[in-house]
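Extended Data, record TetR family transcriptional regulator
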Amino acid sequence: MDAHLRRLWRHRGATLPTPRRGPRQQLDLDDILDAAVAIADASGLDAVSTRAVAARFDKTAMALYPYVGDKENLLALMQDHASAIPAPAPATLRAWATALFELYLAHPWLTERSWAQGSQGPNEQDWMEALLTILDGLDTVAANRAPAVTMLYATTRATAQTAAAYQRLTAADEAAWLARAAAVPDFASRYPLSAALTPQTENWRDAPYAGLMAAVDLLTAGLRSGT
């Protein structure tokens, strides 16, 4: 197991690598990752660098390297660090999707990390195992499990991104949107089916989560019917 994997799995039985140079273990890896996550939460993923994190401890970027490796290693470590699943693990599809949605809202930068950049850490894997456990309890046939996993992750991620964007909108943004919407007087006649859509909720800011729950219910019904 290489040094990076040992860091990822440090709380699951793996032994942390010891820095080869200088005083040993002046810093705690969890403290480093807490600082990195705090920077990302406050200022976004672009603000995270080994230099910025090291400055929180009055250290240089090079002093941080023995603890986290390079920047991509740091991002993967903080990604898994921030992704701890609630205890007890969610036991229904609604609960699972809600918990992941809330995690993404708490740490919006997590959705900036593509699926190609999965951390391969235990916390992220806990989410997958919990979801598969729920699907197993629904007697989901093997051929439907992978598509269901993809649909749930993708829908939860997309709706959380939209909800986070809604939270950043101001009253002026809302007024401008409504003004543009009213600027096409024959919109309803041009697009009657679009205009006839029934909102999931009265407050548009709540629409992403309401839509997510409706999508989860549709999936659950389909899985139970075997379709």
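Summary. The chain has a mean pLDDT of 92.
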